[in-house]
Design brief:
This protein has 3 domains: about 10-190, no CATH class; about 195-275; about 280-395, no CATH class. α1 runs antiparallel to α2 and α3 runs parallel beside α6 (about 135-150). With about 400 residues, it is mainly α. The chain has helices at about 10-25, 30-50, 55-80, 85-105, 105-115, 135-150, 160-165, 180-185, 195-225, 235-265, 285-290, 290-315, 320-325, 330-345, 350-390. It is about 75% helix and about 0% strand.
């Protein structure tokens, strides 16, 4: 089942009509109508997940429970002023979520790599990968860190946290939803409106077109060439490689647009995930436009804390060494962030190499930008000094 499975649409249409009926029955927004709407969406989300495999629901419930309880414990420790407990709850909950993700997604890869290093053979274990686990665990980690860092308050309503993490529209291909963006919407009087339906349908149809018309038709050509590349000429193989990149964009962005569109129809706003990445002028701008929810998540929860920690250590060094290595924390954090991005995309050496190469290219671009800035500053400084000398003010400098 997916957004392009036609069995999915009658269920979503039925959901919209049911929520609209509830909305019409309760002319004025009441606590009962809000609770009924949220519980309906939560039940539908669990039903959609259970149609893949009922065991996915167990994993989701475990993540929801740990996230809800940990956030409340962290907030309680902050109110009491107990930094040790706050750090303990933050570290333990994040470690649990990371280990859970590693168990389901990366165990075979890590064990196979370890056995290869020691000259042993690893027999892969058949582990069922829960649907959307990368998306909702990253959302959970972001929410816990936001509460710990004071960027958001802990949500006391268990079912609000459950709906935030289990919301069915982001399960297949995201985007990664932030708690501080989505949870406040659950407290508001969100209704199904004609304007929301009109806007949501436009976004959905555009995403549907990108997925079914563009991506799926490109996939026919790409799959044929990739299945037997030796049967085609060099130009055709290169064209297929380029087409795969375009197909990936239309497929991924199409899914994301459909999720954003249906969410808009239901009365909720989730983050736009793509912003014309192919018009980017450089690699840094490209990653600001491609998979925006992941890029911004990695920037906020991986890059910034890592760079800040390294800068604090660098501040302890003598001034001469600090000035020489002042950009090293940013460059090192950039490589690590893209390395994590590669690992997030898949459990394989090729993904790690891809992430490392993206990080190195981003560092080279950052070095080039800094060089251009310093060169421009030097030129402007020389021009200013020359102008002052000609006006008789050179002695001031």
């Amino acid at each position: 089942m997916s957004f392009v499975d036609f069995m999915f649409y009658p269920a979503v249409i039925g959901l919209v009509f049911f929520l609209l009926t509830v909305q019409l029955c309760f002319r004025k927004q009441t606590a009962l109508s809000k609770r009924l709407k949220k519980l309906t969406l939560l039940a539908f989300s669990y039903l959609a997940m259970g149609m893949y495999d009922w065991r996915f629901c167990i994993c989701m419930t475990a993540v929801i429970s740990v996230t809800w309880f940990s956030a409340l414990a962290i907030e309680g420790a902050k109110i009491r002023g107990n930094e040790r407990q706050r750090n303990m709850w933050t570290g333990c909950s994040v470690a649990f979520l990371v280990l859970l993700l590693g168990l389901f997604k990366y165990l075979n890869f890590f064990m196979d790599s370890l056995c290869w290093l020691v000259g042993k053979e690893w027999h892969a274990i058949a582990i069922l990968l829960p649907l959307g686990i990368s998306f909702y665990i990253f959302s959970a980690i972001g929410y816990i860190l936001d509460v710990s860092w004071g960027n958001a308050e802990a949500e006391k309503d268990f079912f609000d946290v459950a709906l935030f993490l289990a919301f069915f529209l982001k399960m297949v291909c995201g985007p990664i939803v932030r708690g501080r963006d989505f949870l406040p919407q659950l407290k508001e009087n969100r209704k199904i409106t004609w304007k929301g339906v009109e806007t949501g349908m436009q976004i959905f149809v555009f995403g549907f077109f990108k997925k079914l018309v563009l991506a799926d038709h490109l996939a026919v050509f790409v799959d044929d060439v990739y299945a037997a590349p030796a049967a085609f000429g060099t130009f055709t193989v290169w064209l297929a490689a380029f087409s795969y990149f375009i197909q990936l964009y239309f497929d991924f962005s199409g899914y994301s647009d459909m999720a954003v569109g249906i969410s808009k129809i239901l009365g909720y706003d989730i983050q736009k995930n793509f912003n014309l990445p192919f018009v980017a002028k450089n690699i840094s701008e490209f990653w600001d436009r491609w998979h925006i929810s992941l890029s911004s998540w990695l920037n906020e929860y991986i890059f910034n804390p890592l760079a800040l920690r390294m800068k604090r250590r660098l501040a302890r060094l003598p001034k001469a060494r600090r000035m020489r290595w002042r950009m090293l924390p940013d460059y090192a954090a950039l490589v690590v962030t893209f390395f994590v991005s590669g690992l997030w995309h898949g459990a394989g050496v090729t993904f790690l190499i891809w992430g490392a190469l993206q990080g190195i290219c981003s560092v080279w671009h950052a070095i080039y930008v800094n060089w251009r800035k310093s060169r421009k500053a030097n030129v402007e400084g020389k021009t200013l000094r020359s102008a002052l000398k000609q006006s008789g003010g050179g002695a001031v400098l």
